[in-house]
Task: inverse folding
């Protein structure tokens, strides 16, 4: 049996966790440039929308070559819609496909997707098998049109190929990101269900859906999961996820639990350099924050409405230095990278010289 992408990836793996509304293309670019994580996941994208040609959702699948290896994360509930979604990810040149079976939000789980799939093991299995079949069919030469991909999305793919080039057909790995259970911990039962379908990797968040992000992630349970996955016949890898605050803690969790690596999520907010254990000066933080703004505008446009999602990132950059709270409030009024530049430059001046 040939080694999979996940087996070949240098260990330990310390990657960027997918986070809806956070890890957009600009955020991932900044993390890739200043953090160089082992692997990066996109925000998730809904397979049901893709099946109906929802072009407006496709910015979630924009990426820069600097992000590689970069994995496209998809979610939904209808197995046959995952088939076309996998072809889209493959045609766009992603290095792998990840199925979200861990999102706890009502907007996702309330419709049966994300972590709600833990309660639908047969559907979850069918989804994994469908994705693996799609990956194999694409590697064998089947086209997106033959796979039933909507014509509007095929046009988007063609435009992106002008940027990234035509990628070589190869068997893309299929992985799963999930949780310990729905309303109670059922790690062994749930992971055995997943492993029957031979996913290439499982990323396990140490909470149930019911816990959302409350309480502490259960790394003892993740350690048990690591033993289970490594004992399976199919050579899957396993990553742990939950509450990791810095690179030292990441390495310690890997050592203690026996996982192949970890994903870092919320600790990256306003700290794209966290994977390098860097500690930039306040001036350097400002420079990076402004670069982030410019990268965001380059990708998503400069209209004030388009800039609005960038503000939460600016708030996260403004921590841990004198005047951070005051500056954070000022930045919330910004509508462009130029506005941000002016406020940051003004912040460096003595108070009696600042423009009101």
Result:
């Amino acid at each position: 049996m040939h080694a999979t992408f996940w087996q070949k990836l240098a260990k330990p793996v310390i990657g960027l966790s997918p986070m809806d509304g956070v890890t957009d293309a600009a955020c991932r670019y900044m993390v890739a440039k200043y953090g160089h994580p082992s692997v990066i996941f996109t925000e998730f994208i809904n397979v049901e929308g893709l099946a109906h040609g929802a072009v407006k959702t496709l910015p979630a699948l924009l990426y820069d070559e600097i992000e590689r290896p970069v994995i496209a994360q998809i979610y939904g509930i209808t197995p046959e819609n995952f088939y076309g979604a996998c072809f889209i990810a493959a045609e766009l040149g992603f290095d792998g496909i990840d199925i979200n079976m861990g999102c706890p939000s009502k907007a996702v789980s309330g419709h049966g997707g994300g972590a709600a799939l833990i309660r639908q093991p047969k559907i979850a299995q069918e989804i994994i098998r469908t994705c693996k079949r799609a990956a194999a069919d694409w590697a064998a030469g089947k086209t997106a049109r033959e796979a039933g991909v909507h014509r509007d999305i095929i046009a988007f793919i063609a435009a992106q190929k002008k940027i990234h080039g035509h990628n070589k057909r190869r068997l893309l790995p299929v992985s799963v990101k999930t949780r310990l259970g729905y309303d109670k911990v059922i790690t062994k039962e749930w992971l055995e269900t997943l492993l029957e379908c031979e996913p290439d990797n499982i990323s396990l968040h140490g909470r149930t859906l019911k816990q959302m992000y409350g309480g502490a992630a259960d790394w003892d349970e993740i350690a048990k999961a690591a033993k289970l996955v490594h004992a399976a016949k199919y050579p899957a890898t396993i990553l742990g996820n939950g509450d990791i605050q810095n690179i030292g803690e990441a390495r310690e969790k890997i050592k203690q639990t026996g996982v192949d690596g970890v994903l870092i999520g919320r600790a990256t907010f306003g700290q794209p350099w966290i994977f390098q254990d860097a500690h930039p000066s306040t001036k350097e933080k400002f420079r990076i924050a402004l670069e982030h703004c410019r990268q965001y505008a380059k990708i998503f446009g400069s209209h004030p409405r388009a800039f609005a999602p960038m503000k939460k990132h600016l708030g996260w950059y403004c921590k841990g230095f004198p005047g951070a709270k005051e500056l954070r409030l000022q930045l919330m009024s910004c509508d462009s990278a130029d506005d941000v530049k002016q406020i940051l430059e003004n912040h460096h001046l003595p108070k009696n010289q600042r423009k009101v």
Notes: Residues 282-353 form one domain. Residues 352-356 have pLDDT under 50 and may be disordered.
